[in-house]
Amino acid sequence: MRLCRIALASAATVAATLAATGTASAEEPNAATCETKEVTVTGTDVPVMLQPAADAPRLFVAKHGEFFTCSEAKKGGEHSDCGASDSTAWITITDLKRFDAYIPSSCLADVHR
Q1: Which domain holds residue 72?
Q2: CATH number for the domain including 71?
Q3: CB 58 within 8 A of CB 48
Q4: How many folded domains does the chain comprise?
Q5: 72-109: per-residue pLDDT in tens?
Q6: Dihedral over alpha carbons 17, 18, 20, 22 (to 10 degrees)
Q7: Which of 48, 88, 89, 98 has its CA nearest to residue 68?
Q8: Pairing verdict, β 67-79 and 38-41
Q9: 9 φ/ψ angles, rounded to the nearest 5 degrees
Q10: Of 29, 21, 36, 106, nearest to 69 (Cα)?
C-alpha cells in the first residue's frame, strides 16, 4: 500500500513538472519526456540543434531509430517538427562529447527497457 502511494505521488510530481515545462500537451501525446533518461528517434531526418530553437544552428541530422541519452525536457522556441503544431517542448541530449544538444520532443520517444 505504501509503495502504491509513493508511485502515485511520483506520478503526480512528474505530471506537474511536465505541465510546467510545457512538455505535456494534448497535441503531443506520444512525445518524449526524458523520464527514462534514454530516448529514441521516431521521426525521419530530425534536426539536432545547438539550442532549443528552430532557428538555432543545426549540428547534425538524427535518423529514425537512433538512441540518445537525455537529461531533461525543456521549454524553448516553437517548432513544428514531426507533426507537432507550434510546440515549445525540446529534449536535452547529453551524450555528445563537448556540449549538450536539443531535439524536438515530438520527434522522440522514451525508451522503456
Answers
A1: 2-110
A2: 2.30.30.40
A3: yes
A4: 1
A5: 999 999 999 998 888 999 999 997 778 899 999 999 99
A6: 160
A7: 48
A8: antiparallel
A9: -65, -40
A10: 36
